[in-house]
């Protein structure tokens, strides 16, 4: 399903600014929420979904009263980006949803009821609201295609990488927290094809946790297969926090990304539908780059580590840095 452009309205764009935090888009993107290489999603389209949410979903009205509609705006844009690049990937991969299966889901439409607010944080609420205000056939199709994409490559995908870690902050006159240190280290490791090895050797000598030649097949570690390591090309450095429960950051250089690895037959457990969908979404990362996605700054910036939007570049969940002088596939 393609989202066609509508007429640009300055009044609608100004109204959107009043509802969404941080209106500061440049003149080239004033009427566009997302620009792809070959089409756009307009601010009007996103605003229509926001208006629909406030009309139909009591929890969206609560977000509005709490001045948190920016969360919903970012989530709507994220879903529209994922939908677009997923359609591109499905066409290339020859994936399609069985119409009978889709009809079965729609007959029992899991998105028909209003969002249940019990125990949910605002970001989770935003995802559930966005699912309900979009076309339900499209949302369910996206979910099934993401699962199919993840299943297709689960037994065939592996990555090889070297890494170091950041486990403490730095105090003093110029303090750096772990995130800042990890991103700075990623940029240092990406300065040349040999820089990563030099940084890792120095960190190992200093007692940091490091390793080289780590090979992770997706089938043996479905949760790890959802991480940014599996979404970048060889010759790329990534900085990320594997778990919010642990303070350690990982800074790694991907040496090999194999999508045709022979199956080891050692799958630990059958991944859940949610894990498969998350793996499928991670596989979309190169398609986002290929589609030339540009986000209107009023909705934030694209965060490739999270495959999500962050409010600003200072609030991303990590970094993806191609190595200077490295040959990219």
Automatic annotation (TrEMBL):
**In the record, which residues are listed under signal peptide?**
1-21
Keywords attached to this Swiss-Prot or TrEMBL record, sorted alphabetically, are:
Signal
Q: What is this protein called?
A: PpiC domain-containing protein
Q: Is Signal one of the keywords UniProt gives this record?
A: yes
List, alphabetically, the InterPro entries matched: Trigger_fact/SurA_dom_sf (IPR027304)
